[in-house]
């Protein structure tokens, strides 16, 4: 019984101390004073004996190994103090976690907004991708059409360049020798011994050259005979006289030549005819060559569309764009080739041909000094490189040019002219007889830089003659440009 009372008293004291510690705590002295006060106030004298017995029993229990209450209280106080520190730390941790939770909540709210915006953006991008896919498909179709068109144009340009391969050269007889003429009327000459007939535009049966395409053509004729019957032949275009070559001596050989550059339409015809009644020709030659033509200028508008590289896990746009870029590269290559062919065609459009007088007839010269000749009757001046006022040809671009001169006169005074390049004599044409007809011709191929000038100069003390038959001529044309 005494032991039970001791244990109950101990438990009561323990509960009181814990309650005080929780409410704010009492120190060890306060706890002792509280216990003493309660002992004096609450316990009547009759309990003193019991309390003393309990104390004796407690001492006995303590002696038996039960811990001292004050030591237990001190240990409990230390534990409670430690627990309070942990509680403060835990409170701080909880406060910090609450702040973190508030920040995390704000972050989550922001991320939700970002997700909503991203969802909107993705939806918009999907729309763009659909539009881009449609654009890519359309662009591919356009590119294919343009590629087909450019390929066709390129083939046409190449074909037109191949169309330049038109040239012929022929002499009168295939075998033997002899004269043709004289006849009482004009007679079309047939040059049957064909040396060259590229493009088959010349017909050796009829003696007629038929232009297969529009262009500038160079024709030259050379005739040979024996005096005293004159030798004469003229170049005709569509039935109209253009230029003539003529020679006459009382005896010995006769020879003369002339030439002209003509602009022909498709189907135009050029042929040779004995121009005067009573003329006779021995085996002579005629030749012609396409030297230049006007090509139709093809223009092509290239529609280009700008596309953005958009990546999508479901739509492979990059491959399509790569194909478009490849096609654009190919089209640029085709454009470059077409531009080169256009430039080449345009660069070739340089040719001129002219005779001395526009009307009437007469001599030029003699003069006491060398004299520049102006050929005023212009047949052809493609590219306007020849100036009929000054008689000067000015090269518009670097290239190889062909020039020819033919002169005509009457004996007593020699005929002599020279082709001049930048003030220097290159070649001359000269003839002299004491009487009758004088004629001569010459030609040269010159490499000219842009701005170089070429003209014909009459020698001092010489003279030349011309009339509506156009005996004396000056012609030139670009063979090919040089880089």
Automatic annotation (TrEMBL):
PROSITE patterns in the record: C1Q (PS50871)
Boundaries of every C1q domain copy: 161-304, 345-483
Keyword vocabulary terms for this entry: Coiled coil, Secreted, Signal
GO CC terms, sorted: extracellular region
Keyword Phosphoprotein attached: no
Chain coiled-coil ranges: 73-149, 317-351
Keyword tRNA processing (UniProt): no
Subcellular location: Secreted
Entry superkingdom: Eukaryota
SUPFAM superfamilies from the UniProt entry: TNF-like
One Pfam family per UniProt: C1q
Transmembrane annotation, as ranges: none
Protein name in the entry: Complement C1q-like protein 2
Taxonomic source organism: Anabarilius grahami (Kanglang fish)
């Amino acid at each position: 019984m005494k032991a039970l009372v001791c244990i109950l008293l101990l438990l009561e004291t323990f509960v009181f101390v814990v309650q005080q510690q929780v409410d704010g705590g009492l120190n060890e002295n306060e706890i002792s004073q509280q216990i003493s006060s309660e002992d004096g106030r609450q316990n009547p004298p009759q309990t003193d004996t019991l309390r003393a017995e309990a104390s004796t029993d407690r001492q006995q229990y303590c002696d038996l190994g039960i811990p001292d209450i004050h030591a237990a209280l001190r240990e409990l106080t230390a534990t409670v103090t430690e627990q309070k520190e942990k509680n403060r730390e835990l409170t701080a941790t909880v406060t910090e976690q609450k702040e973190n939770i508030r920040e995390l909540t704000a972050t989550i709210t922001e991320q939700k907004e970002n997700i909503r915006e991203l969802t909107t953006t993705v939806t918009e991008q999907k729309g763009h991708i659909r539009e881009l896919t449609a654009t890519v498909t359309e662009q591919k179709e356009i590119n294919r059409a343009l590629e087909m068109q450019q390929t066709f144009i390129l083939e046409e340009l190449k074909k037109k360049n191949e169309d330049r391969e038109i040239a012929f050269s022929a002499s009168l007889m295939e075998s033997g020798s002899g004269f043709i003429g004289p006849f009482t009327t004009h007679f079309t000459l047939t040059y049957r011994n064909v040396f060259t007939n590229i493009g088959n535009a010349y017909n050796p049966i009829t003696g007629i050259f038929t232009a297969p395409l529009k262009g500038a053509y160079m024709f030259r004729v050379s005739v040979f005979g024996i005096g005293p019957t004159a030798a004469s032949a003229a170049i005709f275009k569509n039935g109209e006289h253009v230029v003539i070559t003529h020679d006459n001596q009382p005896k010995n050989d006769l020879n003369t030549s002339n030439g002209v550059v003509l602009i022909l339409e498709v189907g135009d015809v050029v042929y040779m005819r004995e121009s005067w009644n009573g003329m006779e020709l021995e085996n002579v030659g005629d030749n012609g060559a396409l030297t230049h033509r006007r090509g139709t200028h093809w223009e092509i508008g290239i529609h280009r569309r700008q596309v953005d590289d958009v990546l999508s896990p479901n739509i492979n746009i990059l491959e399509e764009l790569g194909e478009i870029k490849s096609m654009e590269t190919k089209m640029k290559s085709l454009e470059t080739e077409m531009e080169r062919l256009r430039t080449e065609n345009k660069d070739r459009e340089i040719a001129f041909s002219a005779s001395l007088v526009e009307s009437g007839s007469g001599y030029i010269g003699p003069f006491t000094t060398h004299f520049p000749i102006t050929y005023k009757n212009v047949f052809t001046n493609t590219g306007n490189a020849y100036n009929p006022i000054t008689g000067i040809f000015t090269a518009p671009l670097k290239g190889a040019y062909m020039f020819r001169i033919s002169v005509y006169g009457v004996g007593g005074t020699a005929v002599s002219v020279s082709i001049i390049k930048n003030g220097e004599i290159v070649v001359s044409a000269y003839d002299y007889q004491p009487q009758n007809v004088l004629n001569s011709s010459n030609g040269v191929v010159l490499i000219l830089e842009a701005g170089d000038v070429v003209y014909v100069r009459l020698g001092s003390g010489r003279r030349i003659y011309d009339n509506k038959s156009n005996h004396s001529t000056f012609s030139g044309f670009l063979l090919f440009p040089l880089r």
